[in-house]
Amino acid sequence: MCPSPSNTEGDLFGGPEIDPGAPLAARMRPRTLAEFYGQSHLLGPDQPLGKLVEQGRLHSMLFWGPPGTGKTTLARLLATEAGANWLSLSAVLGGVKEVRSAIDQARDAQQRGKRTVLFIDEIHRFNKAQQDAFLPHVEAGTVTLIGATTENPSFEVNNALLSRLRVYVLKALDDGALSDIVDQALADADRGLGQASLQLSDDGRRLLLAAADGDARRALNLLDLAAQLTAPGGTISAETIRDVAAERMRAFDNKGEQFYDQISVLHKAVRGSAPDAALYWLCRMLDGGCDPLYIARRLVRMATEDIGNADPRALQMTLAAWDTYHRLGSPEGELALAQAVLYLACVPKSNAVYTAYKAARSHVSETGSYPVPERFRNAVTGLMKDLGYGDGYRYAHDEVDAYAAGEHYFPDELPEQHYYQPAPRGLEQRIAEHLARLRAADRG
User: Contact, 46 vs 172, CB < 8 A?
Assistant: First the structure.
């Protein structure tokens, strides 16, 4: 990203010039919107940001998207197109002093009739008080604030500030956009690798795009490393790309937005009886560095919430997988997790236990603390016997079919409740038939 110096008055962490010795990804930053690839859903002629550029307007906004999708680049290019002064801060490095300095510079520019774009990278890292500090300056028009974040702004940005920013979602770059960026770097003799006349093999390109995983910065950094291992005028091979990308992990962001999205889709794939999709998401999470024991705990939850008594073996299977991973560790123990995932996805489903538990908890919270009927109390002392504890209790094993038909086990003040409604699938179908026979005996 090398915006025109005429449209850039200052940057708190360095000027707009790019060091010729900088990494390829830094040298290849787009200088104009024509060089910007991807995000066509925002920049097309009839799309929101495309219309802003056509009209020469600008408003405060927030860019939310994965790393390497062009958030900083796009913000700077929009400022350039609008002819605005550019100031940038990183929430990782900046504090109160830097914020005050930026606002002072913006006021000076405003007095000269110049508009200022204040770009805040990683804005979610500012605390509530720091985020609130921007509100009056955004309201007064001292700055046009553009924030960038990889985290869900619904959780990480204050509502007061969020209400004053329009959120634009940037997407991971598709292979077409990444391929165009790579071609540009290979061809550009001034900023890219064009002087070395390097080529990229077809297999190498496929591996590079897969390793980049939608991240333009990662694609260019890997290409840069591969070029350093290839003779000038040569062809970058798949083997070279494989070497430089050996330790790459796919996008995951442990405990962040992608973490919860992926465990959510794994759970839903199991619930939806989609074993292949469930196995895919399991492998994605393991590949991304997720703690396998966290997945093991979630599998136990799936066994009780989504399968329950339709197949009680599901709970045994998940507990065994958890124990197996404890004993074997990675990678051997991960196979037990895969076995459990496939079993959970394939067996009959029922949320009857989960639904019954929620209904019972809700009922308990809404009713009084009724006493246990005396007939069900244990008479462990003489006083308790004198008080009638245990009188009238019917021992089920002495009854016909070992069932005390008509007995009421709820508090006497409560009518009979039926929280548990077995699903007509798996073992629960037989459970439902058995309960129906018992209830018929109660009526008799």
Answer: no
Summarize the confidence of residues 25-32 as an average pLDDT. Answer: 90
CATH value of 371-443 in 1.10.3130, 2.60.40, 1.10.1040, 1.10.3710:
1.10.3710
**168, β-bridge pairs:** 63
Q: Choose the weakest-confidence range: 38-42, 245-249, 320-324, 355-359.
A: 245-249
Nearest to 138 by CA among 161, 170, 166: 161
* CA nearest neighbour of 219 among 422, 67, 380, 44: 67
Return d(Cα 167, Cα 215) in angstroms, integer: 20
Looking at residue 296, its amino acid is: A
**Is 342 in contact with 280 (CB distance < 8 Å)?**
no
Tell whether the model's pLDDT for residue 3 goes beyond 70.
Answer: no
pTM for this entry: 0.62
pLDDT of residue 251: 55
Amino acid at 273: S
Q: Annotate 414-442 with b (16+ C-beta within 10 A) or e (fewer).
A: eeeeeebebbebbbbeebbeeeeeeeeee
For 257-346, CATH number? 1.20.272.10
What confidence tens digit (pLDDT) does each residue in 195-208 have? 778 899 999 999 99
Would you list the domain boundaries of the chain? 5-169, 175-244, 257-346, 371-443
The encoded tokens of residue 411 equal 């508090």
Interacting residues of 22 by C-beta distance below 8 A, sequence separation 6+:
none
Which residue type does 217 have? R
Return phi, psi of residue 423, to 5°: -75, 150
CATH of domain 5-169: 3.40.50.300
* pLDDT in the model for residue 252: 56
Contact, 75 vs 148, CB < 8 A?
yes
Is the model's pLDDT at 95 over the cut of 50?
Answer: yes
The CATH number assigned to the domain with range 175-244 reads 1.10.8.60
